[in-house]
Every structure is written in C-alpha cells, then in structure tokens.
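Sequence design from tokenized structure. All designs in this work follow the same two-part layout: the structure record, then the generated sequence. An example of the structure record is given first.
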C-alpha cells in the first residue's frame, strides 16, 4: 500500500562535528596481545572515530526529526557516555543550546544503543565531540514519520503538518495529512486561503452550499478562499486526507489551537445558491504523457475545472529510469507527496533522494529535476501553488501519445 503503510524514510542534511576528545578512568584495559597503555589509548580513539563515522547518517536523521517541525533548528549538543558491562553504555546530556527535546532524545537513544568493543572497560567514560547543527536556508523534503501528530477537533481527528513556512521556509503553500476517526466532523467555516483536499482512504462528505457532496478514496476537493465548507466522516474506518492551503497560514491552528488566523467559523445560514466546493475524482481526469512517454500526469483539478488559479492538484506516475530534466517554474512552487517508489532528485544543485512517505517542496524559480530509481513505479500527488505550470502537459503532442497508448 506504499504511503498508506507509513513507510519510514530517512533524511540526511549537513552536520559538522568537532575534534575527538576522550577521558577514561583507571584501570586502563589491556588488549589481548598485551599492548601498552599508549596502544590501548590509540585503539580507543580509533573506536570512537569509527563509531562517529558509522552513526553519522543516524545523527543526521535525528536532526531531521527535530527539523520536521522547525527549520531553524540549530545549535550544539554535547553527550557523555559511561561504558558498562559487555560494551553497553549510558548516555548523558552534558550541555545543549538547541532547545529541542526531539533532537536530544534521539541522540541519547542512538548512543545508548551502541555496543563498544572490548578495548574499553566497564567504568570508562567518553565525552563525544560536540555535535554542531546549522539550519539550512531551506528544507526541500520532509519524511512523514518524523512529523509530530497533533490532536484536533476535540481529539476526533489528527493533523501532521508535512510542509509549511515554519519547517521549509516557503509559505506559498502548506501540506498537511489529516486523519478523521469514525463519527468525526468539522463545522462550517471559511479560510483566507484556497484549500485542496485529496482522500487517500475512507469516505465522508464535504459540506457547503447545495448540500453534502460524498467523497471517497481518489476524490479531490477544491475550496476557493472564502467559500463556506465543512466535513462529515462516514463509514466504520478512519478517513485519511491530504490537505493543501495556498497560500499557507491556516495550518497554524493545528500546532496551536489559539492561532486561528486564516480561519473563521461560519455562524450564519447557508444560502441556497452561491460558490461551493468543487469535487472531482481522479478517475474522471484526463492523462497526459510526459518524459518521452515514460511518465504521465493525470490533471485532477486545475483552473479550467475549479475556476480558481490559487492551486492545482494532479497525480504523477513514472516508470523506473524515467527522467524529468532540470527545469524551473517562474512563479509557482511545486509540492509532491510520494505515495510509492523512489526518485533521485536535484533541487537547487543539491541531491535529494525521496521515497514513499516523503513530502517535497520546490520554491518558485528553483531549478529541479528527477530520475526514478529502485524497482517500482514512482507515484505521487503533485501540487502547484499558484496553478499554471500544469498547462504545459496539455500540449497536443502529449495528449496524442496517450491516445496511441504510448
């Protein structure tokens, strides 16, 4: 089921470490060949260096877990270890100034799990070199398993803010995964931003002018800014939806219920006529071939269909080996939620590997491209905010290729 199984994905970003320092308490262990104290010391230092190198990707992942909710996560963390029996160890936080328990708890658990070689004796102490974290100017991908889960709607729903200005530096849109429990509902309200919804699983109804509109897995909903809407869950299982606000802002209430900017509760009586949410299914959408026929895009909701240019949603499928050449969008940011498969992307000159469960954001004007890797087709939801770049898919050449079955 790909994304729906919550496949855990790693995220590696820059981290700098200082030089090695180590203190030990007597007695100094004797190596089997009867080496000198200096030789033992050298072997211990080499073991520490080896452990730092081995755990470097995992340390990066600890940073990513913290940065999944805050791009500006930076500072220094110092950890000390005491060796126990059989190479086990306890980890202690000596000092830190990042102020993020997700990062520090992850680092402590990481080093507690390491088994040290018998060149160390029980009671030896190691002070690891400082871990220095520097926040990058932007974050282009976030792994869903790293993102905090917030309870909303009185605990009947949960929200995971995958991408917004707070964790990527780009406020052109915000992507959230919402999970609605059976019996849950969202009362009528409006947003200052356009809202897009895509149902991954489950069923329910979107409320608004004209009455409820049923939605199920594969349904997409477009709600222009200012349009009154709500949601009602139906069925006996959870309903999972991907939500995009364009521009971002209203998602702030998921992290902090007091931050209601961008959202207004509707207290009036719904008129019989007027603007209402637009509902469309992926099955109703037309498919266009791209990447020399090795990939295709299904346009689900664009301005021609929704009547609003704030955002677009489509479904992207690409075969292994397909390449999307480097390009850029002048005014629109691109967002992807990877459902299946993997891709080696280039974003702003940086290599970014993404896989199922990853969300991606590429700001306007930033050069990017991708090559599909692995052993299965790459499938993702694709958004543009504002809409526009998807119109290039509609060329007669692309449409003809699909008609020919290419």
């Amino acid at each position: 089921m790909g994304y729906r199984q919550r496949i855990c994905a790693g995220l590696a970003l820059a981290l700098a470490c200082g030089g090695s320092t180590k203190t030990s308490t007597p007695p100094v262990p004797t190596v089997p060949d009867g080496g000198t104290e200096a030789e033992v010391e050298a072997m211990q230092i080499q073991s520490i260096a080896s452990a730092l190198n081995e755990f470097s990707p995992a340390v990066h992942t600890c940073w990513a877990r913290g940065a999944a909710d805050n791009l500006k996560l930076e500072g220094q963390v110092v950890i000390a270890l005491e060796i126990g029996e059989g190479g086990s160890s306890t980890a202690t936080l000596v000092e830190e100034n990042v102020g993020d328990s997700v990062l520090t708890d992850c680092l402590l658990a990481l080093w507690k799990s390491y088994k040290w070689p018998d060149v160390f004796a029980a009671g030896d102490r190691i002070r690891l070199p400082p871990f220095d974290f520097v926040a990058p100017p932007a974050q282009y991908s976030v792994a869903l398993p790293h993102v905090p889960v917030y309870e909303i709607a009185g605990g009947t729903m949960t929200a995971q803010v995958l991408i917004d200005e707070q964790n990527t530096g780009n406020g052109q849109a915000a992507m959230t995964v919402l999970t609605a429990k059976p019996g849950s509902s969202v009362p009528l309200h409006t947003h200052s931003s356009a809202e897009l919804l895509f149902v991954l699983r489950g069923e329910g109804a979107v409320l608004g002018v004209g009455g409820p509109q049923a939605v199920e897995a594969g349904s997409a909903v477009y709600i222009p800014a200012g349009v009154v809407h709500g949601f009602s869950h139906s069925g006996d299982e959870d309903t999972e939806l991907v939500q995009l606000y364009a521009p971002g802002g209203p998602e702030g209430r998921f992290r902090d219920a007091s931050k209601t900017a961008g959202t207004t509760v509707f207290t009036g009586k719904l008129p019989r006529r007027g603007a209402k949410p637009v509902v469309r299914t992926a099955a109703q959408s037309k498919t266009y071939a791209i990447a020399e026929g090795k990939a295709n895009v299904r346009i689900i909701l664009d301005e021609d269909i929704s009547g609003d240019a704030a955002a677009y949603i489509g479904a992207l499928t690409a075969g292994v080996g397909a390449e999307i050449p480097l390009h850029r969008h002048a005014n629109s940011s691109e967002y992807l939620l990877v459902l299946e498969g993997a891709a080696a992307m280039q974003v702003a000159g940086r290599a970014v590997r993404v896989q199922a469960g990853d969300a991606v954001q590429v700001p306007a004007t930033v050069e990017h491209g991708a090559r599909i890797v692995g052993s299965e087709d790459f499938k993702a939801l694709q958004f543009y905010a504002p809409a526009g770049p998807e119109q290039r898919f509609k060329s007669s050449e692309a449409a003809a290729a699909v008609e020919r079955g290419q």
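Residues 37-67 form the longest helix (31 residues). We note this feature because it recurs in several other targets discussed in the main text.
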